[in-house]
Specification:
Distance between the termini: 30 Å
CATH class of the largest domain: Alpha Beta
Strand order of the largest sheet: 1-11-10-7
Helix content: 25-40%
Bound molecules: pyridoxal-5'-phosphate
Order of helices and strands: HHHEHEHEHEEEHEEEEEHHHEEEHEHEH
Radius of gyration: 21 Å
Structural class: alpha+beta
CATH architecture of the largest domain: 3-Layer(aba) Sandwich
CATH topology of the largest domain: Aspartate Aminotransferase, domain 2
Strand content: 5-15%
CATH superfamily of the largest domain: Type I PLP-dependent aspartate aminotransferase-like (Major domain)
């Protein structure tokens, strides 16, 4: 087996004997054109329009989240989710170092700082044991009943795990620890639309969860996001502060809070309605590709293909390899990209970025070790898989 075999395999599966094969491209195989033209014809292109509410209802029905509030992107959804969870300037939000920068940025927007807890090798997301150890070692309960970081003095305002590359973290264990400490759980499910833990959709285990519909995610609205919650009051609050805090009135402009212009626009929502109709087909196609990759890599002793963790159904948003060393990873990245097959390393760990370098960290040995060996390989929905289902 050689890297050439990998290139041939990918080109055959994607039915693209030559030319560039991206890491993840969107597929518009359903009612996308129809609904977007309909939105255009309705003259409601902006944040008021029938498709926005319809897309929220479809996301609520699909995820099983009683309420869903649409936003202009996943980052804004996360920003508002953290605000509603009660995160204040100077506090700390416990998250994982291996994530897309939006997770840490959304924390910073609230004026709080991320505090980093290690990931587990199985899920590549927040490790419940490490979270427990972290709190045991660093948290102290004060007279107000809240838990504070005994070294920095900051209140632990929320726990924010992320389902890395679509693979669910052990979210029930994390939720149990959050309950014990009475720290709100907010889930970054930006990458895991269609991923389930114990048959329950990711993003629905905490006080709030968020989804992203950026162009590179499994389902896209061009740009978009969704806040998920089971609490009606929270949902109303989320809607209020994502729509400029305007108090409903037939003509008066009265706003009762400094709020945001974060509402999803109708054109995007129209795209979303067409995309979500295909979500199960997309997940099935992606799981089929993952199975083929798994079989292909089973004979490669030193390369590990990452499969879904126990008790979960992963959407396999980005298929992932773990290489034996950083040198081997670099060699693989160089070779595949030169051949026109797009592959990418994991994100630089958040605790290594200049903005978050001085944030409070637990022991991050697993993340430090894995981050430099991870490679993502082409993972788009393959249209012929969809047709042959
Ligand atoms: C994509 C993503 C987001 C949100 O991204 P947007 O581009 O703002 O929709 C947040 N967190 C993670 C982990 C992501 O991958």
């Amino acid at each position: 087996m050689s890297y050439h075999d990998f290139i041939s395999f990918v080109r055959r599966e994607f039915v693209r004997p030559e030319g560039h094969i991206p890491l993840h491209e969107p597929r518009f195989l359903g009612n996308e054109r129809k609904y977007i033209l309909d939105a255009l014809d309705s003259n409601f292109v902006s944040s008021v329009g029938a498709y926005v509410g319809r897309f929220e209802e479809m996301c609520s029905a699909y995820t099983g989240s009683p309420y869903a509030v649409a936003t202009m992107n996943g980052t804004s959804a996360l920003h508002v989710a953290l605000l509603i969870a009660g995160v204040k300037p100077g506090e700390e939000v416990i998250t994982q170092p291996l994530t897309f920068v939006a997770t840490a940025n959304a924390i910073a927007y609230t004026g709080a700082s991320p505090a980093f807890v290690d990931i587990s090798g199985n899920t590549m997301g927040m490790c419940p044991q490490k979270l427990e150890e972290f709190l045991h070692k660093n948290a102290e309960k004060r007279a107000d009943g809240a838990w504070y970081n005994r070294y920095t003095g900051a209140r632990f305002a929320a726990v924010l795990p992320m389902h890395t590359f679509g693979h669910p973290v052990e979210i029930e264990k994390i939720a149990g620890i959050c309950n014990q400490y009475k720290i709100p759980l907010v889930e970054d499910a930006a990458e895991s639309m269609g991923s389930l833990y114990l048959k329950k959709h990711t993003g629905t285990f905490g006080l709030l969860g968020i989804l992203s519909f950026n162009g590179n995610k499994i389902l896209t609205t061009g740009g978009g996001g969704m806040i998920l919650t089971a609490d009606e009051e929270i949902a109303l609050r989320a809607k209020h502060i994502t729509t400029t805090g305007k108090v409903p009135h037939p003509w008066e402009f009265f706003h009762d809070v400094t709020a945001y212009n974060y509402r999803l626009i109708n054109l995007s929502a129209a795209l979303g309605c067409a995309q979500i109709e295909q979500i199960e087909t997309f997940v099935a196609a992606k799981r089929r590709l993952a199975q083929k990759y798994k079989d292909f890599f089973s004979s490669w002793k030193d390369i590990q293909f990452v499969t879904e963790p126990e008790n979960s159904r992963s959407n396999y948003w980005l298929n992932t390899l773990i290489m034996p060393s950083k040198e081997e990873r670099d060699h693989f990245l160089q070779f595949t990209n030169e051949q026109g097959v797009m592959t990418r390393p994991a994100w630089t760990l958040m605790n290594h970025l200049p903005m978050y370098r001085n944030c409070f960290c637990g022991n991050l040995e697993v993340a430090e070790n894995l981050a430099e060996r991870i490679v993502n390989i082409p993972s788009s929905v393959i249209p012929s898989y969809v047709q042959n289902q």
